[in-house]
Amino acid sequence: MQSNENILTCTEEVRVRFNETDPLGIVWHGHYIVYFEDGREAFGRQHGLTYLDIQNAGFVAPIVKSTCEHFLPLKYGETFRIVTTYINSVSAKLIYKYEIFNQEDKLVCSGETIQVFLDSNGSLCLYNPDFFQAWKDKMGLS
């Protein structure tokens, strides 16, 4: 079950690095998941929900599902935008959607990740941890 009362997004600009490409200068498909992480980390810095915040509260948030659809290639030296959108859920999880746009503002790739919360014993949290609920309340998410 999802709720859309307040949409939080973050846009990060990145340049394709040489080591991310194959011999043809095209980004290897596995790097798009890394770009999603770049988007999540930028989102966390902008909106106050970094991995360190989660860790300092005594939790970890492993990814349990990721999807990635490719539409156009990125090439060495190009810059691109990662738009990361937090999808609010009543469940104790983090859902992010991603869109990657090239320099011509064409959609290159889209995807989603889902993370769950584990406490310090490695147990799955069935309810929002207090720090996460406080963050959601601060951001106007119920």
Describe what this molecule looks like in 3D.
This protein is an alpha+beta fold. Helix content is 23%, strand content 37%. It has helices at 31-47, 51-56, 130-138; strands at 2-15, 63-70, 79-89, 93-101, 107-116. The protein has a five-stranded antiparallel beta sheet, covered by helices on one side. A hairpin with a 3-residue loop joins strand 3 (79-89) and strand 4. The longest helix is centred in the N-terminal third of the chain and has 17 residues, at 31-47. It is elongated. The mean pLDDT is 94. Belongs to the 4-hydroxybenzoyl-CoA thioesterase family.
Distance between the termini: 12 Å
Strand order of the largest sheet: 1-3-4-5-2
Tell me the number of helical segments per DSSP (H or I, 4 or more residues long). Answer: 3
Pick out the low-confidence regions. Answer: none
Rounded to an integer in angstroms, the radius of gyration calculated over CA atoms is: 16 Å
Provide the residue-averaged pLDDT.
Answer: 94
Biggest beta-sheet profile: 5 strands, antiparallel
